[in-house]
Amino acid sequence: MLDSRFFSYKDTVLSCEGVALDALAAEYSTPLFVVSRNALVEQYRAFEEAFSSLSHFTCYSVKANFNIHVIKALSDQGCGCDVNSGGELFRALKAGVDPQKIIMAGVGKSDQDIEYALQSGIFMLKAESLSELRHIEAVARRLGVTASVGVRINPNVTAETHPYITTGDSKEKFGIDEGSLDEMFDLFKSMKHVNFMCLDMHIGSQIFDTEFYHAATEKLLDVLDAARAKGFSIDYLDIGGGFPVTYEPQKPATPIEQFASVLIPVLKKTGTTIIFEPGRFIAANSGVMVTKVLYRKRNHIGKEFVIVDAGMTELIRPALYQSYHEIIGVKQQEATIVADVVGPVCESGDFFARGRTIDAVGEGEYLAILSAGAYGAVMSNNYNGRLRPAEVMVDNGRTSLIRKRDTFEQLIENEV
Ligand SMILES: *Cc1c(COP(=O)(O)O)cnc(C)c1O
């Protein structure tokens, strides 16, 4: 969706915070990701505002957009980070985030990840299995430190979202299930180098129904009661991310205030500090991808294709999750066409829209693919020898290149 506070037409040209996107495309070439710094900051503030009456801290889920300048824009506002790997921890530290504001998730952390996290002095590691807990204990013992640990519980609720982004169901690989809790409590009692301080969940992404969130939270609170009954003092509850955004104007996301009004009363009575991990909510509508129309072609059955210079290698969401992204002309148009908007990659799944009514763009003109700020550039890859795209950030009319496009040389530099 076009967030008109940050992206709007100015003299018939789509602009980001007043900067014309066709000028950016000409300067930096395409495909190009354009991020509005103020959009990131305002979404973070809106989130903080909604939950302001609750004792909490927010850790932006870095995987949504891990560019260090994006991380820095948020950490400058006081936001922490949720990282999912040693690589993301490295990014957060490079962005200057205080290690005590970093937490680490991940269903398959290696001993190296665990060691890096402990040596960096991050706030908390979230364990997703009993075996992982044993590894955390062993690494902490070897380093002579105490690891602050949260446990991700699988609350066994099925969020009504795309199956690839539901994570709180016991059929999925995530978290520790309710059948293992007693064994887990016993394990904690036996461990000397682990401080059990938090219960955690993350039930999926793009969750529209507050009731799923509520139901999962209630399950987490049952585990909290059980843990307290065993004598553990749990000071934190981490209820994850997954807060929705609007991709299609016809399908508006549940407002964040609605989640707040359902969750705050339930969470307040626990007496814990709540941790949130929003990713998409903060980043999705902060960015667009600008792509150039290379060719138009019409086949003998009258089907029209608009072939653009971006593909699934830059924005994989339509191919991976059948996601909808709005597509609009960078230059405002009166006329429309019905077309498939497709990329140059040798895969039939390489499309952004099928049979879509779009602005009647000509060859050489630009399209903007909206809501590309989360799970966009971070998933770009070099398949088909493609160069990962450039990214620019706009801040009140000032533009900075925050990632250079890959070069051909980079494509082979690791091939020894
Ligand atoms: C991906 C992820 C998030 C963020 O999810 P969004 O839907 O982007 O808010 C938060 N926590 C964990 C553990 C995740 O894996």
UniProtKB/TrEMBL annotation:
Residues given in the record as substrate binding sites: 280, 317, 321, 347, 375
Name one molecular function that GO assigns to this entry. diaminopimelate decarboxylase activity
Positions contributing to pyridoxal 5'-phosphate binding = 242, 277-280, 375
Chain positions with N6-(pyridoxal phosphate)lysine modification: 63
Question: Where are the active-site residues found?
Answer: 346 (proton donor)
One example of a Gene Ontology biological process annotation: lysine biosynthetic process via diaminopimelate
Look at the named UniProt entry and state the broad enzyme category this protein falls under.
Answer: lyase
Q: Which UniProt keywords apply?
A: Amino-acid biosynthesis, Decarboxylase, Lyase, Lysine biosynthesis, Pyridoxal phosphate
Q: Does the keyword Lyase apply?
A: yes
The residues forming a coiled coil are: none
Physiological role: Specifically catalyzes the decarboxylation of meso-diaminopimelate (meso-DAP) to L-lysine.
Assembly: Homodimer.
Q: What is this protein called?
A: Diaminopimelate decarboxylase
Q: What is the lineage of its organism?
A: Bacteria, Pseudomonadati, Chlorobiota, Chlorobiia, Chlorobiales
